[in-house]
Amino acid sequence: MTESPDLDPVIHAQARLRVVSALSVLNEHDKITFPVLQDSLRMTAGNLSVHLRKLEDAGYVEVTKTHQGRTPATLIRLTRRGRLAFEEYTAALRALLEPGAST
């Protein structure tokens, strides 16, 4: 029997998986504003902030505080490390769901 692949615990939490999944569809250097991400995920600001912090601490997302004109803006993007971690996570998930299938 082959050993089951480990799922990244940082990504595996449902809310963080949703965040990383949403960010993964953006191009590598594209950023999304906090309110747009919040609305698309239907999460509260506090909940999204907590999960972004965990992802940021792991180096999976980059959060940039800036201004658009005079208005403060928070921009979020998936880092290269985060993109790789998500690819590894999805490969591990596929291996769990389809044992014996080639990846």
Automatic annotation (TrEMBL):
Q: Which SUPFAM superfamilies match?
A: Winged helix' DNA-binding domain
Q: List each copy of the Winged helix DNA-binding domain by range.
A: 21-96
Report the InterPro entries cross-referenced here.
WH-like_DNA-bd_sf, WH_DNA-bd_dom, WH_DNA-bd_sf
Origin superkingdom: Bacteria
Q: Which PANTHER family match?
A: BSL7504 PROTEIN
What name does the UniProt record give this protein? MarR family transcriptional regulator
Question: Which species does this protein come from?
Answer: Paractinoplanes ferrugineus
